[in-house]
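Fill-in record for HTH-like domain-containing protein.
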Amino acid sequence: MRRNRAESRRSKANRTLLSQIEVAHLNSRQTYGSIRIHRELRSQGNTAGLNRIARLKREGPQNETITGMAAGCPRTNL
């Protein structure tokens, strides 16, 4: 039955906030963590808390990383 419900205000706000987080992250050349992103969004007038930003950043699509040889991690010599 949940499929017929409209998207909640919190879910819409999270989606909007996530797009702002992605923009701030890309503008920082992908170097800012959640603390700096929180500070930047606060300076723009956003009132979201640090833990919410950290959770959305952690769960967001930009957090998908490449591991192993593709990431430049050398293999150990046997």
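KEY FINDING: Residues 7-71 form one domain.
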